[in-house]
Automatic annotation (TrEMBL):
Taxonomic classification: Bacteria, Pseudomonadati, Pseudomonadota, Alphaproteobacteria, Caulobacterales
SUPFAM superfamilies the record matches: FMN-binding split barrel
Cross-referenced Pfam families: FMN_bind_2
Biological source species: Asticcacaulis endophyticus
Name used for this protein in its record: FMN-binding negative transcriptional regulator
Taxonomic superkingdom: Bacteria
Length: 208
């Protein structure tokens, strides 16, 4: 079981965690067993009928040595990192403040099961591609590759990662004084950082 982060940094809902994963799908898959293995991969969330996050879908290259490790020891740690930035005391009127880092992250202990069925692998690939191509002006689909798509799909193995435990932290200035929080927002704005500031406002609606 992973050590929990302070409750003040807890996400508001499972939906917020899913949104983080959909916006930042490139995760680290870290495994132990016969030596450590780590592979960065794009993943897609899977939710139950109530919207609760229960698993991830992804794929490895069959040539990846981590596949055999995971077949023998299927437990893995999956790590997502969302928007983050350094908080500089140089932005603050009170220069006795310490520097810190604001971020959004999510970690999951998962049990992996591998998928050999070609149709299921292609369905998961199409789902991933559709998510990545959404809102593009000239969106692409795997069907445009023709027969080559089927050949390339044979070089990968799909997997489902069922969540055993999770620990997400959205550290977004919740514990800062009002004046310090305002100085941080202004400093981030001056540096052109808008993605993180929007999340900071959402998680501090009582003062932002």
């Amino acid at each position: 079981m992973m050590d929990p982060k302070p409750s003040k940094y807890a996400p508001h809902s499972d939906a917020d965690i899913v949104s983080l994963i959909e916006a930042h799908p490139f995760a680290w898959i870290v495994s132990a067993g016969s030596g450590f293995g780590a592979t960065p991969l794009p993943l897609r969330p899977r939710c139950d009928t109530d919207g609760k996050l229960i698993a991830f879908a992804g794929h490895f290259a069959r040539s990846n040595a981590q596949v055999e490790r995971l077949k023998s020891h299927p437990r893995a740690l999956i790590l997502f990192m969302g928007p983050h930035a350094y908080m500089s005391p140089s932005w603050m009127a009170d220069r006795t403040q310490a520097p810190t880092w604001n971020y959004m992250s999510a970690a999951f202990e998962c049990d992996l099961s591998f998928i050999e069925d070609a149709d299921e692998i292609e369905a998961d690939l199409n789902d991933l591609i559709a998510a990545m191509e959404t809102d593009r002006s000239n969106g692409w689909s795997m069907a445009e590759m023709g027969e080559r798509a089927h050949r390339l799909a044979r070089g990968i193995i799909g997997f489902r990662a069922d969540i055993v435990s999770q620990n997400a932290a959205f550290k977004l200035g919740q514990d800062e004084r009002d004046d310090v929080f305002t100085d941080i927002l202004n400093g981030l704005a001056q540096e052109g950082e808008h993605g993180l500031t929007q999340h900071m406002r959402t998680y501090n609606t009582d003062r932002a």
